[in-house]
Design brief:
alpha+beta, 40% helix, Jelly Rolls, 4-stranded antiparallel beta sheet
């Protein structure tokens, strides 16, 4: 029965995704037909925004019909409206990328960088930012480079996978337990550093991966529902942020930033990539779980399993009485 439900869910998800893809293609054709270079600027930016607004309208109509304020998180990946929300975020990302994709090179260091905040929310119909913690108003957006942030003490990149991998307990089989423990320790120190930066202790992991190679321009918040902030520790890589007229590149240490459309970036080389949420409903508890370095080390003994010495005394007395003859 459970297997049947899983299979049905997978079929429904594929169907919803296919239907939304048809909407995207249809709205893209409309946008290109209405596009005017002199009036609308970069075509990719206009088309992405146009399609995203059309997809958002699908969700808004549904919410109004149902008398709801937000879509529950469970809709992501399971319903037609959830598929529309994911596709809308992707179109907003494409729109932001189109504005900066022609800016090439490493550009300036982070010492002289400026950032323009963006008010467009990536998942406005699913995720409601939390006061104090989330970067709201959007003028609280930021990016920061800490080149001297301490990394793992002994990390062998030759033992790392060649493909992107989610950082959970199962990944310890790939990295080796000692190396995985170092990753967990590093991630938690980064979390503490970010908490200090934003003056909030309520953040949780929303995403965590090891990225071994280059990734194209992206917006982190479009890839992880509920992500407020991101961080990347550069093991032997680089991170470049692009704006409409300049680029800023970090080549060592830790980089932290708000996950919105104001931060379009591309990564190169091996790095630990993290996303954080201010809303515990969007936390992924399976990420970066701690394990003992060696079997048995750190094992907590449940005192209740030891037994009460008085009960053992009674038990021994009864045995002695039974075999007294």
């Amino acid at each position: 029965m459970k297997l049947s439900l899983i299979l049905w869910s997978l079929v429904a998800t594929d169907k919803n995704t296919d239907q939304i893809e048809e909407v995207v293609q249809k709205e893209t054709a409309k946008a290109k037909k209405n596009y005017d270079k002199d009036e609308h600027g970069k075509e990719g930016n206009f088309v992405g925004t146009y399609v995203a607004m059309s997809l958002d309208k699908i969700i808004e109509d549904y919410l109004e019909q149902k008398g709801m304020k937000l879509l529950p998180k469970k809709h992501v990946g399971t319903t037609y409206q959830g598929a529309a929300a994911v596709a809308a975020a992707r179109q907003k990302e494409l729109s932001a990328v189109a504005l900066v994709e022609d800016v090439k090179g490493d550009g300036q260091s982070f010492d002289k960088h400026k950032i323009e905040c963006n008010d467009m929310a990536l998942y406005p119909h699913i995720y409601e930012p939390k006061r104090i913690c989330s970067p709201v108003p959007k003028t609280n957006c930021f990016r920061e480079h800490l080149p001297n942030f301490e990394g793992p003490k002994s990390f062998d990149l030759s033992k790392c996978p060649k493909d992107s991998i989610t950082l959970n307990k199962e990944s310890s089989d790939v990295f080796g337990k000692d190396q995985y423990v170092q990753i967990v320790q590093l991630a938690n120190r980064i979390k503490d550093q970010l908490s200090e930066k934003i003056k909030s202790k309520t953040i949780s992991f929303a995403g965590a991966t090891f990225e071994p190679s280059s990734k194209p321009l992206a917006v982190d918040g479009a890839r992880a529902t509920g992500a407020d902030y991101s961080a990347s520790f550069l093991l032997d890589g680089a991170l470049t942020f692009r704006s409409t007229d300049v680029s800023h590149t970090a080549k060592k240490g830790l980089v932290m930033w708000s996950s919105g459309l104001e931060n379009v970036f591309e990564g190169k080389g091996p790095r630990i990539q993290l996303q954080f949420t201010c809303n515990p409903d969007f936390a992924e508890e399976s990420l970066l779980e701690k394990i003992a370095k060696r079997p048995g080390k750190g094992k907590v003994i449940n005192e209740s399993l030891k037994g009460d010495w008085r009960l053992w005394s009674i038990f021994v007395f009864v045995l002695c009485w039974m075999f007294r003859f």
